[in-house]
Amino acid sequence: MTTLGEVLKNLRGKESLREAGQRAGVSHSYLRYVEKGVDPRTGAALRPSPETLKRLAKAYNYPYQQLMNMAGYSGTETGETETNYLYLFDQETLERFDELSEGDKLFIVSQFESSVKYFYNNHLASKEAASGNTPVERT
């Protein structure tokens, strides 16, 4: 199983921690800790905030939701609004959608579809049930 730190280190490639941190708006030392996955003060597993993951996703042009999943966030526990939960890819990626490979397009569409199903089944269905309507699970 690939860890968040391994993915981030791979995405950074040969770029220095200092350069990558500056691009992402995080300190190079914190980025090193995130890549290692350990808080040096406590020795405990390090879990970056959703805001930090959003910055890293943008800097590396990588799907934000995938980083969130690797960090162990489900979407509901982060306190994000429903709109942000479905915001899987930055605007720049969506604007250049036609330039992407067919595989990347299929990946984006499948991630969006699964997010919409998750959102409906976990958010809207419960609201419908609370209002007295019978929710229909989407598959």
Summarize the structure in words.
This protein has a domain at 4-95: Orthogonal Bundle (434 Repressor (Amino-terminal Domain)). 59% of the residues lie in helices and 0% in strands. The chain contains eight helices and no strands. The protein has helices at residues 4-12, 17-24, 28-36, 50-60, 64-70, 82-85, 91-95, 102-130. It is globular, with a radius of gyration of 17 Å. The model is unreliable at 77-88 (pLDDT under 50).
Can you give keywords for this protein?
single chain; 139 residues; mainly alpha; 434 Repressor (Amino-terminal Domain); 8 helices; Cro/C1-type_HTH; Helix-turn-helix domain-containing protein; Lambda_DNA-bd_dom_sf
SSE map:
Blueprint: H1 4-12, H2 17-24, H3 28-36, H4 50-60, H5 64-70, H6 82-85, H7 91-95, H8 102-130
Helix pairs in contact: 2-3
Radius of gyration: 17 Å
The CATH topology of the domain at 4-95 turns out to be 434 Repressor (Amino-terminal Domain)
Number of strands: 0
Distance between the termini: 27 Å
Total number of helices? 8
Protein structure class: mainly alpha
What does the main sheet amount to? none
Q: What average pLDDT do the residues reach?
A: 78
Q: In the CATH classification, which architecture of the domain at 4-95 applies?
A: Orthogonal Bundle
Globular, elongated, flat, extended or rod-shaped: what is the shape?
globular
Q: CATH class of the domain at 4-95, anyone?
A: Mainly Alpha
**CATH-defined superfamily of the domain at 4-95:** lambda repressor-like DNA-binding domains
Which parts are unreliable, with pLDDT below 50 for 5 consecutive residues or more?
Answer: 77-88
- Strand percent estimate: under 5%
Query: What order do the helices and strands follow?
Result: HHHHHHHH
Share of helical residues: 55-70%
Pfam family, one: HTH_31
GO molecular function: DNA binding
Domain HTH cro/C1-type: 8-67
Protein name: Helix-turn-helix domain-containing protein
